[in-house]
Amino acid sequence: MSSTREDVLTATVQHELGNQLFRLLLSDGSTLVAGLSTEAKRLGLPITTGMRVEVRRARLDPARGTVLGPVAAHDPDQRTTILDPTPSPRHKP
Fold first, then answer.
1. Residue 1's pLDDT is what?
2. SS3 49
3. pTM assigned to the model
4. How much is the pLDDT for 6?
5. By the 8 A CB rule, do 68 and 57 touch?
6. Which of 13, 37, 42, 48 has its CA 20 to 30 A from that of 24?
């Protein structure tokens, strides 16, 4: 089963628990305990207290979840292009 963007929530790491578990604070004020996803473990993503992370809630236990990784610093759909008016030194007229 593939995950959709609707399944993914954003949360803040409130506390680091033992065994790679984290207590997360969701935007609605509820908390859940989540472990790292297999992909996050494989990549060695560092998750620390205070970080904003993406999490998927467990299907069978709404108080548990899986941390997918840190929230991106910017949204790739909202790219801004900066036009530099100075000519490049590599390009000769």
1. 45
2. coil
3. 0.69
4. 62
5. no
6. 42
Superfamily of domain 7-72: Nucleic acid-binding proteins (2.40.50.140)
C-beta separation of 40 from 55 below 8 A: no
Q: Do residues 57 and 13 lie in contact, with contact meaning Cβ atoms separated by under 8 Å? A: no
> Quick one: tokens of 67?
């941390």
**Euclidean distance between CA atoms 91 and 93, whole angstroms:** 6
| Beta bridge mates, 57 | 65
Burial level of 32, CB count in 10 A (0-12/13-18/19+)? Answer: buried
Rounded Cα–Cα distance for residues 48 and 28 (Å):
21
The structure tokens listed for 18 are 């033992």
